[in-house]
Amino acid sequence: MDPHYDAQDVARCDLCEVAIVQSYCDFCHVNLCKPCIGEHISDDYSKHTIVPFQQRRSTLIYPKCEKHPNENCKYQCKDCNIFLCTDCLASKPHNKEHKLSKLDEMFSKKKDQIHKDKQEIKEQILPVYEDIASELKNQISHIDVDYQKFTTQLSKHREELHREIDNAINQREKEIDENKLKHLSILTKHLEEIKQLQSLMQESLHNLNEMEESNEVTPTIRYSSKNQEFNKLPPKVIVSMPKFIPKPIEKEELCRLIGKLTPLSTTLEERVFTAKKPNTSVRELLDEPEVLNTIKTGHEKLLNVTCLNEEEIWTSGQTTADIKCFNTQGVLQKTTKTKSGNVPNDIAVYSDGALVYSDWRTRTVYKVKNDQTEEIIKLQGWIPTQLCVTSSGDLLVTMYSDDKTQSKVVRYSGSTVKQTIQFDDDGQPLYSGNDYYKYITENRNLDICVADIKAGAVVVVNQAGKLRFRYTGPPSSTKKEPFHPIGITTDSQSRIFTSDCNNHCIHVLDVDGQFLRYIDNCDLELPTSLCVDNDDSLFVCEFIKGNVRKIRYLK
């Protein structure tokens, strides 16, 4: 009985319903106190099986024989598929060629199978369903974001269509104005010609009036009539007005012009259950880790190191915009400068070799591939800090609010937000709200691990963002300074490594956050960022010295 149970949880006797239970009848399945045992077995002592309460249900209850009601069947005939008691076997011997099985042995085997099935459901099958449910919940939580992309695209297309329609209408308006001016010019020219003729006729009338009143012979005799010329009227100018012929708006054609949305489709993809097998190739930790190589980066105040494989590492510091790539022998391979010229907060590498870095001044995360830099994330109200590329190709970004009161982790697929991790199930912040470093990594079991230096804790959540544990240091510490984790990384065995800068060491934890050991014998000085390559070699930044130490820690 659990000592932490309160009085309401104490098991009581089923007969008197008052006394605390001490015994159990394994035949009748009844809780009993000592005084009630006699009353319970008074009807037929032989059939009852009284055991201590802790051993309840330990006595097998065999089926009763149909032919011999007072006997229990303890055998089964496999061929006849019937239960048999000892009297059945004695009174009429069963077919000797038939196979008999003892029920207690069958019961034991089935119990083993039940236990195995229970463990398999609990430890293997149910976690898979939890992952599936978590994946579906994640999809549901981001469905608004996913569909908002379509709305945004459509709005952008609407603006483009409106712009093109406005341009087309403006062009027609321009043509109307040009026709109007041409029309006006034609009519004005013809009017000027009429006015000139009118002026000639007025002049002719004036001359005729003078000649009519004159007695001079010569001008009168020489007069020649111009009326025939005036009678020839100028041609009538007929200008046909242009016509606007609007094209009928056809809904189908308009829809084709706008574009189309492919229909929602649903397919069922068969899932193949793969049991999680225990890792049989566990490499043990060395008693004394050793430094294999020291790479002098030339960085002052070296903060970041990351690697994609065992061939090259990328580094960045706190005083320059240079991001340097070295081979593991320490030879500089290339140098990339940040686009803005600002110092990068953190660096990471995608599986295709593309470099990604965060710039707190521009609130931007950039991606560099083939020497081309592109902006992939632009924040408002938040400032990006540390980065982690996950096994699925997503990007995890730690960030803090402008007022430095909130911190969170955001998962991106490209530029799209897939997940935000900020609060626990009780609505309390998972991470301290400030602008201190919060390095981040993903474990092999898809846990998300954050080194929260201000909180003095490693905060680990599962893939769905549910808090698994907080590590605030070993149960008993031999170090002088408080635990302040900075860098963090994980290896192929899902061990977690976090640098304890002020104590010049590295804490090694197992997948559940249990302290395993320190790495403190490698002359590390102010260790900051960490990374592990494909061969489980550990790379450690030394802040002031600007060195990267390559350490072997596994046998």
Describe the 3D structure:
The protein has 555 residues and is an alpha+beta fold. It folds into three domains: 7-104, 2-Layer Sandwich (Double Stranded RNA Binding Domain), CATH 3.30.160; 155-257, no CATH class; 285-554, TolB, C-terminal domain (Neuraminidase, 6 Propeller), CATH 2.120.10.30. Helices cover 26% and strands 29% of the residues. It is built from seven helices and 30 strands. It has helices spanning 34-41, 86-91, 103-141, 143-213, 217-222, 227-231, 251-258; strands at residues 23-25, 30-32, 50-52, 75-77, 82-84, 100-102, 285-296, 302-307, 312-317, 322-327, 332-337, 347-349, 355-359, 364-369, 372-378, 382-389, 395-401, 407-413, 416-421, 438-442, 448-452, 457-461, 467-471, 485-490, 496-500, 505-509, 515-519, 527-532, 538-542, 547-554. The strands form eight sheets. It has a four-stranded antiparallel beta sheet, with no helix packed on it. Strand 18 (407-413) and strand 19 (416-421) form a beta hairpin. The radius of gyration is 46 Å and the shape is elongated. Mean pLDDT is 87; it is low at 1-8.
Topology summary:
Layout: E1 23-25, E2 30-32, H1 34-41, E3 50-52, E4 75-77, E5 82-84, H2 86-91, E6 100-102, H3 103-141, H4 143-213, H5 217-222, H6 227-231, H7 251-258, E7 285-296, E8 302-307, E9 312-317, E10 322-327, E11 332-337, E12 347-349, E13 355-359, E14 364-369, E15 372-378, E16 382-389, E17 395-401, E18 407-413, E19 416-421, E20 438-442, E21 448-452, E22 457-461, E23 467-471, E24 485-490, E25 496-500, E26 505-509, E27 515-519, E28 527-532, E29 538-542, E30 547-554
Antiparallel strand pairs: 1-2, 1-3, 4-5, 4-6, 7-30, 8-9, 9-10, 10-11, 12-13, 13-14, 14-15, 16-17, 17-18, 18-19, 20-21, 21-22, 22-23, 24-25, 25-26, 26-27, 28-29, 29-30
